[in-house]
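Wait, mind explaining this?

_____
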Amino acid sequence: MTTALRVLLVDDEPLARLRMRSLVDAIQEPRCEVVAEAATASQATTWLRDHACDILLLDVQMPGADGLQFADSLVQRQVDQPGLSMPLIIFVTAHAMHALRAFELDALDYLTKPVRRERLQAALARAAQRLAERSAAQAQQPAEQPTAPDTTDFVTLTDRGRLLRIPITEVLYFKAELKYVTLRTASESHVLDGALSELEQRFGERFLRVHRNALVARWAVRELERHTPTSFSELDSSEAAEVADSWAVRIVHVDEWLAVSRRQVAAVREALAGQKT
């Protein structure tokens, strides 16, 4: 049996907390358990000093410090204590005016009251997926890797009308296709605007350019192998004619292969050698 995700409810209205608790209890998948409730940011802060949770269902408008200020304090807390795990934040409020600010604070989702069970379940499912990817990335990433991504970095994109923030630690690769770039995590693919060169400049040594159309997270490179060019759609006809064979890398979690240009083979070998030391 899988362990239930731990949820902390923070809302100044007792009836609102009661309804959210009943909604959480009614959701069978993913399994979640409300481990505590708080009526103010101060109460939540006190509870978090001695306890941990996976998900924070957080109201925005509360007496004293509001939900946005509380979330900001949690972000600062993680900056001050890098090894401290920060819960995923799902804002729950009657007003949609604070949505942009909420996502600037790396909120996973933003739900408006009255919250429908289906909408809450979708948010909790995303939280479970994000936590699983975070755990998998930490397990796969070498402990002494000097270029490990800073957990405060993220990629912001729009997906079906929603503004999403994907932690860079969860990105396996970026791949340029036509006018767009595909961002790949262990379980999802997203399309974003922009150029691969801009992403390479922003994230620097955390990613390795394996081909003119692909950047791969260094920790996500699992294997380098020789292949024929016809095995990969990334190689166009001119490249196939230029070389008799080519190389590709296998990506962790998704077991996909990406083409490697001849000039990048040495860099990929070096990256793999660095992972083994």
Summary: The two ends are 37 Å apart (CA to CA). DSSP finds eight helices and 15 strands in the chain. Residues 143-152, 230-244 have pLDDT under 50 and may be disordered. The domain at 5-140 is CATH 3.40.50.2300 (Rossmann fold).
